[in-house]
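Repro case for the chain-ordering regression, as requested:
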Amino acid sequence: MSQPSLLSEIKDKHHVFSFMQSQASPVLNVDKQILLYLEGLSVSFDGFKAINDLNLYIRDGELRCIIGPNGAGKTTMMDIITGKTKPDTGSAWFGQTINLLELDEPAIAQAGIGRKFQKPTVFESLSVYDNLVLAMPDERLVFSLLFARLKGEQRDRIDEVMTLIGLQDHSAMRAGSLSHGQKQWLEIGMLLMQKPRLLLVDEPVAGMTHQEMDRTAELLVSLSGSHSVVVVEHDMDFVRQLAGKERTVTVLHQGSVLAEGSMDQVQNNQKVIEVYLGESQ
Amino acid sequence: MLLWNLIKQDRGGQILLALLALAIIIVPILNGLPSDHPLHIPTYMVAVMGKYLTLALLALSVDLVWGYLGILTLGHGAFFALGGYVMGMYLMRQIGDRGVYGHPELPDFMVFLNWDSLPWYWQGLDQFWFAAILIVLVPGLLAFIFGALAFRSRVSGVYLSIITQALTFALMLAFFRNEMGFGGNNGLTDFKDLLGFNLQARETRVGLFIASAIALALGYLLCRSVTQSRLGKVCVAVRDAESRSRFMGYRVENVKLWVFTLSAMIAGVAGALYVPQVGIINPNEFSPLNSIEIVVWVAVGGRATLYGAVAGAIFINYAKTWFTTELPDVWLFALGAIFILVTVLMPKGIVGLLRRKEGNA
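-- result from build under test --
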């Protein structure tokens, strides 16, 4: 918030300050079966175009894998969707009614977009249980947080998620002392608690064993349908496992979509092969 | 019942509250003994101990924002001093015509400056209830405005620490000016009585000691109830992974703003109890060094435990009193040495040592 606009806010006697306004955003509308619209997005950092005229549509309930070499703009795209970065041009809509570019990170999270980071980020000095409690979407206002108590069904939900992510025996453990893989699971569990409509998952299987990868794939597939899931991943085996025969895979390159289609189509696409294998024509 | 739940699993808190209760009973009795009795506590010692308790309350307020929320505030002395100044103004108004110049309404320094009437901001402060409201309101309001600007523009880390230093430094310079109407560099002093009780009287000193002990106990319970609530968990979450909590939908700036404001209010109460026990408030209380010293108390006691801040504040201030009477030249070196030793050998402070013995560090 720049100073001049703050001054004009104060001078206007009818102005309702943003901290007094309720944060409720318009109701999500997915009549057209599309949950996320990214159109003509561009953003550059110091002249480097991280995202260049990116167009991407995610259907409601879809599981979409996004692959691309390093620097393709995958993380920047997630930053834009979650409000961390504002694009120079273009538009980003969540359903037909919610303009993501007008909202900040907490508002976007409350609207129903959850994000899992590449590096597992859990609240290290809190217990596993408390990490899940905080992820619950119910209480976000300072004063209701002060008096918040867990209800029966919320406890059941936490227990359910804790069993699902295999941490039921570690509920009192500090999240910081979990193993790398367990932290990944805890973070996925936190996303589940948050009950987002759209899940953005950045490299979920980094540091996981093959067994754990299979379980993660199973979980993500089971989530699609009721949620839309966007997975950014480097591990091709994992992407193949997730995408199966019919799901769409998007290849990003230099900030825009290079190819889109089933895994087989994408793998046989000449441009994709060039980018990945560095073959010259 | 509710209170017991708050400290059920808090050994340190239980010990602290028990010690405070004990002090409230024992100190008046020992002070009442004849002065040649070996267990007699002289009245000046009661006032010194009362002063420690108010400083402990100040340390508590810093631990709330630094220990739990990760805001390294280097300007909390400002809120303490503001609370102290409000109390000082009330005490000045109580002097009435007993000042050196015998003016019925104006404090001595205003007569000296040839002022003919009270400035508007001195109005109403002859009423204790009004002063009591301002003691929490003035520091709270300053913290709110400061926090709204700083936290909304996402100033954090070392930059925020520097701004808090600037805040207290600016206030110190302002309060040094005679035109401000707060007594300039002499500050406010020569207090006579509080709520009709003579401040020099033994009973008043003991009463202030008891009030400080109760304020510290209530302050502890208040901070504990915040840190044990889900809000307290969110604070720790913000401290450890600020952007993660944003992506989870928490308005980090509001959490910081309200907890910071609450902490400033507690610091204001501490300042208000401090002033009648030391008998003076002057702009040196705003000095940036004071604020840094508070952080040292908390670090020495042990961060993010609340009772550690109390222990640290009392320990360091006792050491300060001892050194400045026995070895005055050594004090600053000793303080530096304590700080270095604690940071190197006991990163979790004094209470970290005790906890390790218990085996649940």
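Ordering looks correct now. Chain A has a mean pLDDT of 84.
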